C-alpha cells in the first residue's frame, strides 16, 4: 500500500510527508453528509507494560543504516511474549514474502538474500507453532537503542459508485497522460536518486496541477474518472492511505490502489490545524470532526495539502505492500528499509497491547523514517479504522534475523 505509493499512517497526519475531487458548486460536505459516529472515534487503547529496551551497542558508523547504528543480541525468541493467533498470521505473511526476500538487496546492511534461504525453505512445510519456527531459524537483535514508536494504518472503505450520480460526485482519477516522471540522475551525477514529476507547457517543464486546481476542475472532460466517491472528506483520507475500497450502491465493492501522485509536496493538515488552534485532538477522528463541522474552512485546509493521488482499479489480491505482496491486517507493517529489511519479522512490546507481538516488514511509507519506527497495518472495516486512527504506542522493538546473519555480525 505505501511503497512508492507514499501513504502516511493516519496517526502521522499531524506530522508531515507524502502523497478530492470536484464538487461543482464547492464545499466539503452536503446536508446529506453523514455525521461522525462511533466508528469515527479512536478505539479505546488497551494499556500494557512495555518490556525495557536493552543497553544500546556502541555506534560503529554514521548511524544512517542499522549496521552503522549498531546492533546487540536480544533474548531467545522462544522466551518472548506473543499471541499464537497473530504469530500464525505473521508466519504466513513471512512465507508469502520469501520469494522476494531471498532476492532483495538489504539496505540495512544486516543480511544477504541467501541468509534467508533456510528459513524460507523450512516454512513451506512447517506444521508446528509459529514461535517455534521463528526460534528455530532466527535470532533476535536490537537495532540502536531499541526504543520503538508505532502508529497504524488501514484499508479504508468509503461510499462510492462507478458512474457519477446524485450524491456520488467526487471524481477518482487515473493517471493523466501529461504527468511525466523525470529521473534527475540522467542529467547530473550529483542528482542521482532524485526524481520529480511535472508536465510540459510550451518548451518548459512545470509543476503539475495541485489539489486546489484539480478540485476546481482542471482535469474535467479528459475521461480520467475511474469512479466517484460520495464524500470529499472520506476521499481525502483514502488518498492519504493510498488505497481502499469503494462500497457501491448495489452492495458490491470496488478496490482501488495507488497509481501515482502529482509530484507536489505533502502537507500534514493535522499539524497545521493544531498550530492554528483549530483542534486539540490531532487524531484522524479529531481532524474529521473539524472538517465536517466547518465545511468551507475545511475545504481550504485540505487544499493546503497540494499533493493529489491518482488511482487504478485493483482486481487481484490486495492491498499490496512495497514487496508486491498482499499486506495482512495484524501481521504486516511498514518500516524504514535502512533499518529493517523488507520481509523480516520484528517483535514489538509497547505501552499499548494491540500492537504487541510479531509483525512482518512488508511495506514502506513516506513518514516511516528511522530505527524502530513501525507503522502497523490493521486491515479494513470499523475496527481497523478505530485502532489505526488512534495508534501512537511507545515501547521496545526486536528484529528477527537469520542465524547465519547474526553469526556474521559477531553477536
TrEMBL record:
Gene Ontology annotations for the cellular component aspect, listed alphabetically: outer membrane
Pfam families in UniProt: 3D, MltA
Source organism of the structure: Sphingorhabdus lacus
GO biological process, one term: peptidoglycan catabolic process
Location of the Lytic transglycosylase MltA domain: 157-312
Catalytic activity: Exolytic cleavage of the (1->4)-beta-glycosidic linkage between N-acetylmuramic acid (MurNAc) and N-acetylglucosamine (GlcNAc) residues in peptidoglycan, from either the reducing or the non-reducing ends of the peptidoglycan chains, with concomitant formation of a 1,6-anhydrobond in the MurNAc residue
EC code(s) of this entry: 4.2.2.n1
InterPro entries in the record: 3D_dom (IPR010611), MltA (IPR026044), MltA_B (IPR005300), RlpA-like_sf (IPR036908)
Region (Disordered): 28-65
CDD domains: mlta_B, mltA_like_LT_A
Enzyme class, UniProt record, top EC level: lyase
Record's protein name: peptidoglycan lytic exotransglycosylase
GO molecular function: hydrolase activity, hydrolyzing O-glycosyl compounds; peptidoglycan lytic transglycosylase activity
Amino acid at each position: 500500500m505505501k511503497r512508492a505509493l507514499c501513504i502516511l499512517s493516519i496517526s502521522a497526519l499531524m506530522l508531515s510527508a507524502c502523497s478530492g475531487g470536484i464538487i461543482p458548486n464547492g464545499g466539503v460536505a452536503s446536508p446529506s453528509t453523514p455525521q461522525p459516529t462511533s466508528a469515527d472515534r479512536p478505539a479505546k487503547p488497551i494499556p500494557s507494560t512495555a518490556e525495557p529496551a536493552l543497553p544500546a551497542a556502541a555506534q560503529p558508523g554514521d548511524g544512517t543504516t542499522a549496521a552503522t547504528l549498531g546492533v546487540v543480541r536480544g533474548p531467545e525468541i522462544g522466551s518472548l511474549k506473543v499471541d499464537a493467533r497473530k504469530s500464525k498470521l505473521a508466519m504466513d505473511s513471512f512465507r508469502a514474502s520469501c520469494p522476494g526476500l531471498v532476492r532483495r538487496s538489504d539496505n540495512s546492511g544486516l543480511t544477504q538474500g541467501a541468509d534467508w534461504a533456510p528459513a524460507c525453505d523450512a516454512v513451506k512445510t512447517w506444521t508446528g507453532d509459529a514461535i517455534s519456527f521463528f526460534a528455530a531459524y532466527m535470532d533476535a537483535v536490537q537495532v540502536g537503542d531499541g526504543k520503538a514508536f508505532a502508529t497504524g494504518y488501514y484499508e479504508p472503505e468509503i461510499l462510492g459508485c462507478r458512474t457519477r450520480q446524485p450524491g456520488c460526485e467526487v471524481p477518482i482519477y487515473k493517471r493523466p497522460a501529461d504527468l511525466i516522471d523525470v529521473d534527475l540522475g540522467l542529467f547530473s551525477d550529483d542528482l542521482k536518486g532524485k526524481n520529480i514529476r511535472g508536465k510540459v507547457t510550451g518548451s518548459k517543464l512545470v509543476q503539475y496541477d495541485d489539489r486546489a486546481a484539480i478540485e476546481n476542475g482542471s482535469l474535467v472532460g479528459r475521461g480520467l474518472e475511474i469512479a466517484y466517491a460520495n464524500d470529499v472528506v472520506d476521499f481525502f483520507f483514502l488518498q492519504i492511505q493510498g488505497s481502499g475500497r469503494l462500497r457501491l450502491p448495489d452492495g458490491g465493492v470496488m478496490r482501488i490502489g495507488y497509481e501515482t501522485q502529482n509530484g507536489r509536496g505533502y502537507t500534514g493538515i493535522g499539524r497545521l490545524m493544531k498550530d492554528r488552534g483549530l483542534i486539540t485532538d490531532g487524531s484522524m477522528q479529531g481532524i474529521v470532526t473539524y472538517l465536517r463541522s466547518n465545511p468551507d474552512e475545511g475545504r481550504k485546509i485540505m487544499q493546503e495539502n497540494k499533493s493529489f493521488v491518482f488511482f487504478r482499479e485493483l482486481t487481484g489480491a490486495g492491498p499490496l505492500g512495497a514487496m508486491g505482496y498482499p499486506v495482512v491486517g495484524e501481521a504486516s507493517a511498514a518500516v524504514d528499509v535502512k533499518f529493517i529489511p523488507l520481509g523480516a519479522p520484528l517483535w514489538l512490546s509497547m505501552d499499548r497491547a494491540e500492537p504487541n507481538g510479531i509483525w512482518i516488514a512488508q511495506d514502506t511509507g513516506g513518514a516511516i523514517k528511522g530505527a524502530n519506527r513501525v507503522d502497523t497495518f490493521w486491515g479494513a472495516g470499523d475496527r481497523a479504522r478505530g485502532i489505526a486512527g488512534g495508534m501512537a504506542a511507545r515501547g521496545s522493538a526486536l528484529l528477527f534475523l537469520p542465524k547465519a546473519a547474526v553469526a556474521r555480525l559477531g553477536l
